[in-house]
Amino acid sequence: MEKEKNLEKIVSLCKRRGFVFPGSEIYGGLAGIYDYGPLGVELSMNVKNAWRREMFRLHENIFELDSSILMQKRVWQASGHTSAGFTDPLRECKKCHHRFRADHLTEQGIDKCPDCGGDLTEPKRFNLLVETHLGPVQDDSSLVYLRGETAQGIYVNYNNVKISQSASLPFGIGQIGKAFRNEITPGHFIYRMREFEQMEQQYFIKPSEADKYFEQWKEERLHWYLDLGIKKENLRLRPHVTGELAHYAKAAVDIEYNFPFGWHEIEGIHNRGDWDLSRHSEYSGQDLSEIDTGTGKRFYPYVIETSAGVDRLTLAFIVDAYEEVIGGRTTTTQSIKEIEVVLKLDHRLSPVKIAVLPLSKKEPLVNMAKDIASKLRKNWNVQYDDTASIGKRYRRQDEIGTPFCISVDFESIDDKKVTVRDRDTMKQERMEIGKLEIYIAEKLK
Ligand SMILES: [Zn+2]
User: Fold this and answer.
1) Ligand 1 centroid to residue 100 C-alpha, Å
2) Closest to 350 in 3D by CA, of 392, 396, 381
3) Which in 17, 19, 112, 170 has the greatest CB count within 10 A?
4) Left if phi > 0, otherwise alpha if psi is -120 to 50, otherwise beta: which for 302?
């Protein structure tokens, strides 16, 4: 039996087990900012590695980049981010001065301050770029922006990558990196943050092939989530309607996930047309166009973008994997009436792959178990745990999604065998210590 998921439980698990902590917590926090703990780093790193593998290893014509967070402010003028296209409508309470997204208030039919009931100002446009200053003088000339998306770093390096890698259309450039947006109302835990991480890929193509590649990327990206274990019923594609399209987009579709707080975007697939390369050519004076070998005419490549949020995805993977079993999965007396949590993450994403658990804290079991753990550590992230009862230790590992628990008992000393327990089936298999590595390698493949 499974209970309804709610965000509070996920947030609490994330804090308790070291996935995600509130930013600057000992100082009372900082709105819209979170820190990843030891297990959160592992999990989000596994998400990023799965994406990197998909993009750069399985596609021979997609190249990886790591561009700077800080760029010349002209970049953001060219991209349109400093003008109205990258603003949110803001209304402020005249009494408590809390700020709200005007469009969110309108959606909910609210015309007074949701916090104190005070009157609200008329909506005004609020730019989302985060500003800072570079150099010793703080004036307009030293103003720079923390990038609002990683994509622009890709466009400004278009020629560098193309020439250095001898690439020709169609080809892609992708990168993983931090981006910053001064969200008026951050929220839903790590879903909408002011500092966040993106995994973006820009696929450069001939304009005539835009529809074909838009469809192709939509399918490929959707499949990626399914392959990593997200349940089909929790994913959907939502095309943007005309009024909703970003300033650069010709067509757009969101991959949405069914979060405890509703259906929300985890990745966007956009046909950005020739907006980006033509604008950067115009603003920089550098020619980023291509020549059509058939007609001899110059054109700007179109871009199909796949833009995913690492944090949103990480949250989606946790939510999707989270299962509560009332009364417990085991039938032992002590677990009755307890709620057991199992994080059924795909093995590739699990932060810890193997837990090694000696049945006693005494020698020679501890030595033997530590020896097994240190051998397996060469290939996988392994936790060693000799505290509490074995049942409790199994549940601790289930809760963080560890696929395999290896228990070392007194018989192990004589028969050189251990018991391997599978997280999902709870089946226990006795096997020779010497065969562990091959067995686990096969299972984690
Ligand atoms: Zn108010």
Assistant:
1) 10
2) 381
3) 19
4) beta
Reading the block at residue 430, the tokens are 């006795």
Question: 119 C-alpha vs ligand 1 centroid, how far in Å?
Answer: 7
E-assigned strands of 310-422?
322-326, 339-343, 354-358, 382-384, 404-408, 417-422
> Considering only CA atoms, which of 117, 162, 273 is closest in space to residue 210?
273
The mean predicted confidence, pLDDT, of the chain is 93
> How many angstroms separate the alpha carbon of residue 97 from the centre of ligand 1?
6
**d(CA 99, ligand 1 centre) in Å:** 8
Q: What is the pLDDT of residues 96-112, one digit of tens each?
A: 989 888 988 988 898 99
What is the rounded distance in angstroms from the CA atom of residue 95 to the CA atom of residue 108? 21
Distance (angstroms) between ligand 1 centre and the Cα of 87 equals 22
Residues 245-279: tens digit of each pLDDT? 777 778 899 999 999 999 999 999 999 999 999 99
- Which of 196-200, 229-233, 361-365, 431-435 is least confident? 361-365
DSSP-derived pairing of the beta strands 322-326 and 339-343: antiparallel
With CA atoms as reference, report the closest residue to 101 among 119, 118, 89.
89
Q: How many CB atoms lie within 10 A of CB 216?
A: 14
Distance from Cα 360 to the centre of ligand 1, integer Å: 59
Compute the C-alpha angle 335/338/339, nearest 5°. 125
User: With 80 as the cut, is the pLDDT of residue 214 above it?
Assistant: yes
What is the rounded average pLDDT of the residues 320-341? 75
How far, in Å, from the CA of 12 to the mean position of ligand 1?
Answer: 29
CATH architecture of 17-70+147-318: 2-Layer Sandwich (3.30)
Specify the fold of 352-443.
Rossmann fold (3.40.50)
Find the 400 Cα to ligand 1 centroid distance in Å: 40
Distance between Cα 120 and ligand 1 center (Å): 8
Q: Using alpha carbons only, give the angle 47, 221, 206 rounded to the nearest 5 degrees.
A: 125
CA 335–ligand 1 middle distance (angstroms): 47
Q: Kindly list the domain boundaries of the chain, sorted by start residue.
A: 17-70+147-318, 352-443
Q: Which amino acid is at 444?
A: L
Q: What is the distance in A from the centroid of ligand 1 to the CA of 110?
A: 12
Q: Are 276 and 252 in contact (CB under 8 A)?
A: no
Residue 184 CA to ligand 1 center (angstroms) comes to: 15
| CA 180 to centroid of ligand 1, rounded, Å | 26
Q: Which residue has the tokens 């009755």?
A: 336
1 has pLDDT over 50: no
- pLDDT for 132 equals 94
